[in-house]
Amino acid sequence: MNNDILKVLYSTEQIDEACKRLGKQIQKVYADKVPVVIGVLKGATFFMSDIVRQADTYMEIDFIDVSSYHGTTQSSGKVDLVTDISTDVSGRDVLIIEDIVDTGRTLKFLMDNLTKRGARSIKVCTLLDKPAGRQLEANSDFIGFEVPNEFVVGYGLDYDEKYRNLPYIGVLKPEIYTNN
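Given the sequence above, the corresponding structure tokens read:
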């Protein structure tokens, strides 16, 4: 797998530091609340696990699975709900944990969906923000890193369900996904 990586953008140590920083920020914001923390599957799994352990505050955890890439390197433009949350968010504070905010479509879909369900507040924590890919307005409240407009994998992010288990975030060599 490592041979498929053009360059490492963020090391394991840099990711750990970002998780500590973001966990402390989240702890301050939710110190007197019990938010529903919703991890966006599958990409945010590693990040969510690491970040919630850094926030010494009460929280409930749930997951949602949405898809827009369908095994490719670009969003299809359509967001599909694959697996829904099981928690009632009506009147609750919600924190969405995302791996990457790219086009903004997934985040807009999630925020609209949770707003319709009556969430009192919705904040977003993303490991990676890629403003150059943005097609819809989508802002995060907590951001780990800003990334260039390149295809990144590792630490939960994938290409065709592979590379999620890399302990760092790297740029995938273009020949890996252009030859498939």
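The longest helix spans residues 12-29. Try to locate this feature in the token string yourself.
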